[in-house]
Amino acid sequence: MKLTTVLAAAFLASSAFIATVQAQEQVNLTWQMWGDEKDAPLWQSLADLVTAEYPNITVTPQISGWTDYWTRLPVLASSGQIADLVAMQSMRMPSFYSILEPLDAHFASDGFDVSAFETSIIAGLGHDGTQYALPYDVGPWLVYYNRDRFAEAGVAEPALDWTFDDFKAAAQKLTEGENYGYAVQAFDFVAGPVALGAEYFNDSNQFDVTNAGYAAAVGKFVDLVAVDKTSPVFASGAGAITGSGRFAAGNAAMYIDGPWVLQQTKDSVDFNIGVAPLPRGEGESRFITAGSGWGISATSQHKEEAYKALQVLTGPKAAEILASAGRALPGRLAEQKFWYDVAAKDVAGTHEVLDYMFAHSTPFRLNEYWNEFENLITQYMPLALNGDSTTDAVLADIQNQLPF
Amino acid sequence: MAAIEDVSGPTSRTRSRWGSRLDRREGRTAFFFLLPGLIGMVLFLVVPIIASVVLSFTNWKLLGTPQFVGISNYVRLFTADPQFWPVLRNTLFFTAEYLVLNIVISLGLAVWISSLKMGQRWFRVVFFLPTFTPGIAVAIVWMLIFAPGGFFDFIMRSVSIAMPSMLTDQTLAMQAIIIVSLWAGVGYNTVLFNAALDMVPQSYLEAARIDGANAWQRFWKIRLPLISPTLFFGTVMTAITSLQVFDQIYVMTRGGPGNATATLGYAIYQRGFQNFQMGYASTIAWVMFAMIMALTAVQFWLQRKWVHYDN
Questions:
Q1: Are both B137 and B270 inside the same structural domain?
Q2: Is the domain of B83 the same as that of B223?
Q3: Domain for residue B146, yes or no?
Q4: Biggest alpha carbon distance in chain A?
Q5: Considering Cα of B114, then B116, then B117, then B122, what sign does the dihedral take?
Q6: Residue of B217, B219, B221, B182 whose CA lies nearest to B197
Q7: Position with higher pLDDT, A327 vs A2
Q8: Are residues B29 and B142 in the same domain?
Q9: Which residues form the signal peptide (chain A) (predicted)?
């Protein structure tokens, strides 16, 4: 009896010892991320935060370019070479959620509260009610405008609830000779129509891009190019000169993009810029947001450690670093002020505009074919813009090629 | 005659028996020496090719396990896919125009260079430069030239020629792709043909000149037939690479505007790596392979009519 007790005690003690040793075991996590090489030190500083908090965990960032990242991700996942921590963009979540670990059980185990984050991006990084990633940034698509050109043309700066007619009038007034009022880009045919109140999906979340509401809204943006000539046609090529390029060169007075490019836009222009919400239609304003975050690979060998690392990488300190560097408008509400104070310092109206837009955000409806839809818009929309085809015909062609 | 056979018969038999033993021994040694290359070829060429045949009968989406779907990918490609026939038409159109222009221009340049008294080497290097420039880099530079509001539009405007921007016009976009491909691809054939022209014996040309043949006749009747094997090689290789065209399209147009520049090579990339339909992409790849095989076979059959081998 006594011997048994001693043995049991010895067993318990040794298992506790083993557990302690295991807890202290050095764990190396890999962290897959897109971005420029010049951002590498920034991501490394975030990785260092993890080691500072948990000395037994080291995180190694693996950075690739944006396009490559999405080509490599499924290849790495299906060949079992995916990193422990995986970057994910909200718009691609429906295609890739299956390679990520559901986080809800982890949240339940330590009572993690997601209410510190902006709600639309928490929804964006989930799928069917399950959370798969935590965000590091968020933002709605908004209108960047050249304040100097507005002043020269005597156009009033946009109001928060400006309508499409106001937008069109401004674009027309700002167009003069070789200088355009606006530079349309492919994604404007998603964010723009939604702001006008249109839907590209039917009730069962499948593409229905030929519905009258969406076709009319797309038609309004097409007319700005094809009829009013207030914007140049964009080319379908990958490296095509984009709206941002024209805007920075002073060739277009307005273009649509997200707050994630605000810092670089500000650095690349030599005039005053402002931001405004997307124009609304007859009804209330409504805006879609997108953002990115990090999740844990479903096949990771170190999920517990990865979860700890994830909390640090999306924690307040990391958000402050990214925001102060102007890299991201944080998904964490409390740390957004660092971005407003640094990146958005000289950009008129950023705080009010983003507050207004977050208050009027609408869920960004997506499905697993989203990527194909975006590619088809880029490839086919120029036909409507240059007058070779009509908006209805182009949308019918796109609908025809979408799987459903 | 019979006597000679009698004498040579046994000797050659002995030699062949001894020789075959040696052959076998040498063959084994050669096999081991070649093994690294063979393993590489099996692993990275044969296995993927077989895998892609298998994949073309599945609905593999990169993530998840593939399911066998029989020939339904092939049925879908030929009957249901609204994009297949336009894509095939674009591919053949590109190949036909590019092949003819490439051969004519490179042959013209080769003849011109070989007629030069000096600077031949210099011109050969100049025309060969684009061949070892990375295709993607070339395409990006040309894309910036042809982009709406870019350098090309600026030139056209300054000489008062009103024309739509190349990359956003359905007809002109393919011409832009062909121009870029020619710029990048003509140099190789030029150097090839130029080398062949230099190999034509001067004595033939001298003899023809003495017989009163003019330059035009010397070219058509002597030089062209004599370089026809090289010309044939250039044509076959250029046809194969042009059926596979991808880089320029990926960078400059992404198959657009609409489907104006969508080719088989780009369709494979789009289906496989953008839409993650690996099974379907493999199906298109096999159709492309069959097409290239068939066209190459036709070219080999046709060569009997126009290619002259000297011996």
A1: yes
A2: yes
A3: yes
A4: 99
A5: negative
A6: B219
A7: A327
A8: no
A9: 1-23
* Residue to test with chain A: of B55, B172, B251, B254, most A Cβ within 10 A: B254
Residue B34 and residue B94 in one domain:
no
Best interface-test mutation with B: which of A383, A397, A400 has the largest number of B CBs within 10 A?
A: A383
- For B:181-220, CB contacts with A below 8 A are none
Residue B222 lies in a domain: yes
C-alpha span between B27 and B32 (Å, rounded): 9
Of A289, A280, A275, A259, the closest CA to residue A161 belongs to A280
Equal CATH topology for A24-138+290-342 and A142-286+369-401: yes
Answer yes or no: is pLDDT of A18 > 60. no
Taking each helix axis from N to C terminus, what angle separates A391-401 and A370-385, rounded to the nearest 10 degrees? Answer: 150
Q: Are residues B90 and B153 in the same domain?
A: yes
Q: Is A100 helix (H, G, I), strand (E, B) or coil?
A: strand
B131 lies in the same domain as B280 = yes
Residues B81, B72 contacting (CB under 8 angstroms): no
3-state secondary structure of A328: coil
Structural domain count, chain B: 2
Domain A24-138+290-342, second-level architecture: 3-Layer(aba) Sandwich (3.40)
Q: How far is B189 from chain A (nearest CA, A)?
A: 28
Range of B196's domain?
Answer: 72-306
Q: Is A114 on the interface with B (CB under 8 A)?
A: no
For B223-226, which contacts have Cβ atoms below 8 Å and span 24 or more sequence positions? B223/B111, B223/B197, B225/B308, B226/B196, B226/B199, B226/B200, B226/B308, B226/B310
Identify the CATH number of the domain in which residue B138 sits. Answer: 1.10.3720.10
B140 in any annotated domain: yes
Beta carbons of A242 and A235 less than 8 angstroms apart: no
A314 has pLDDT over 90: yes
What tokens were used for B102?
């490439």
pLDDT tens over chain B, length 311 residues: 444 444 444 455 555 565 667 788 888 888 899 999 999 999 999 999 999 999 999 988 888 788 899 899 999 899 888 889 999 999 999 999 999 999 999 999 999 999 888 888 899 999 999 988 898 899 989 988 998 888 998 999 999 988 888 888 899 999 999 999 999 999 999 999 999 999 999 999 999 999 998 988 999 999 999 999 999 999 999 999 999 999 999 999 999 899 999 999 999 998 888 888 889 999 999 999 999 999 999 999 998 888 888 65
B121 lies in the same domain as B267: yes
Q: Where are the domains of chain A?
A: 24-138+290-342, 142-286+369-401
The CATH class given to the A142-286+369-401 domain equals alpha beta
Contact A174, A153 (CB under 8 A): yes
CA atoms within 13 A on the CB side of B168: 28
What's this model's pTM, rounded to 2 decimal places? 0.83
CB A175, CB A370: distance < 8 Å: no
* Model ipTM value: 0.79
DSSP string, B229-252: HHHHHHHHHHHHHHHT--HHHHHH
Q: How confident is the model at residue A37 (pLDDT cuts 50, 70, 90)?
A: confident
Tell me the nearest-neighbour CA distance from B94 into chain A, angstroms: 18
8 Å CB contact of A380 and B253: no
Whether the CB of B291 is below 8 Å from some CB of chain A: the reply is no
3-state secondary structure of A170: helix
Which residue reads 């030599």 in tokens? A270
Q: Do B78 and B25 have their domain in common?
A: no
Pick among A79, A96, A379, A389 to test the B interface (most B CBs inside 10 A) = A379
Asked if residue B249 is part of any domain, the answer here is yes
CA distances (Å), origin B18, targets A132, B12, B88:
72, 10, 56
